[in-house]
Amino acid sequence: MEVSGKHRTTLVAIFADPVRANIALRDIEALFVACGAEVSEGNGSRVRVALNGVRAVFHRPHPQKETDRGAVTSVRRFLTEAEVKP
Predict the structure, then answer these.
(1) Which domains does the chain have, with CATH numbers?
(2) CA within 13 Å, CB half, 17
(3) Is the C-alpha dihedral spanning 53, 59, 65, 69 positive or negative?
(4) What is the full DSSP assignment across 17-81?
(5) Model pTM?
(6) How many CB atoms lie within 10 A of CB 18?
(7) Residue range 57-81, pLDDT digits in tens
């Protein structure tokens, strides 16, 4: 799946080594939508995502807007399972 512009930059950042911890969740959610994912609100600060038959639930970080390394690793695993690669 090809994405361009800011979505491409976000995708490359997600798959960068070492794992980054400063990616804004709103950028990750925008990438999901650009890839054709269904994104919906869950309970509290949870976000449900379905893409290519793969489902996941992510937690919005607060009070900061950036994800931690563990969340980026989970997003990377989700995208890999959904066959989305940089």
Answers:
(1) 6-81 (3.30.920)
(2) 0
(3) negative
(4) SSPPS--BHHHHHHHHHHTT-EEEE-STTEEEEEETTEEEEEE--SSSSB--HHHHHHHHHHHHH
(5) 0.90
(6) 6
(7) 999 888 888 889 999 999 999 999 9
